[in-house]
Write a structure and sequence with these properties.
deoxyribodipyrimidine photo-lyase activity; damaged DNA binding; chromophore; Rossmann fold; Rossmann-like_a/b/a_fold; Crypto/Photolyase_N_sf
């Protein structure tokens, strides 16, 4: 979870992630984790700037050959 997603928008000062969206995200991640656990897998969840978190995970794992990501569309 990127803490910058909880800041306010630049133009109008609205929350970028409101309480309903946050609840949906948390419930979705919890459900995904439970589904993966039933299949013998797991889900790594971290809070922080992705550029820092991913770097730290790669360092921890040691043998990473590729990283895929999705960039969120930003305001103009």
């Amino acid at each position: 979870f990127d803490p910058r997603h909880h800041l306010r928008t630049h133009r109008y000062g609205f929350p970028r992630t409101g309480p309903h969206r946050l609840r949906f995200l948390l419930e979705s991640v919890k459900d995904l984790r439970e589904t993966l656990k039933k299949k013998g897998s797991t889900l790594v969840v971290r809070k922080g700037k992705p550029e820092d978190v991913v770097r730290d995970l790669i360092t921890q794992l040691g043998s990473v050959s590729a990283v895929a990501f999705h960039e969120e569309v930003r305001e103009i």
